[in-house]
Amino acid sequence: MLKSKYILIVVATVFLAPLSLFAENVERSITFAFTSNFFSQILPIETDTGSFGGSAKIVRAVRELRQTSERFILFDTGNHFGGNIYRRWHGAPEIELANIARYDAMLLGEEELAMGEDRFDRWAHRAAFPIVLSNLIA
Predict the structure, then answer these.
(1) Three-state secondary structure call for residue 72
(2) What angle do CA 80, 85, 108 make, to 5 degrees?
(3) Distance CA 126, CA 57 (A)
(4) Which domain holds residue 61?
(5) Less CB within 10 Å around the terminal CB: N or C of the chain?
(6) 48: domain CATH number?
(7) Burial of 131: CB neighbours in 10 Å, binned 0-12, 13-18, 19+
(8) This prediction's pTM
(9) Quick check: is 91 in a domain?
(10) CB-CB contact of 43 with 83 (8 Å)
(11) Domain for residue 63, yes or no?
(12) Element (H or E) spanning 47, and its range?
């Protein structure tokens, strides 16, 4: 099976590589942004020097990046849920705000995996983006 995968890769490379000769020589860029370990921190954290974090700031920053970037991709890399807000509302406000921010995908982290299937189902069906499990080795 592994040998056939390598053969397929070689054949695809042989047939597709010449297509690059006909490609336009145009420089293109893509902007990637991600959030990580959000832990349901919907409200900003207040400090003596001001505030930081929170969903409103994320949404505003993402909107600015989308306006200035021709190609923009936004991910959450896991642990989006947790804490008192999650325990009270079971992910509803977090996922709605993630939909407003227009995430392109959300990867599952330790917190999402630990919540169990029932809790996962409470919010996952509301997501307007794919949820990716790429950090599990079985």
Answers:
(1) strand
(2) 20
(3) 22
(4) 24-132
(5) C
(6) 3.60.21.10
(7) middle
(8) 0.73
(9) yes
(10) no
(11) yes
(12) strand 45-47
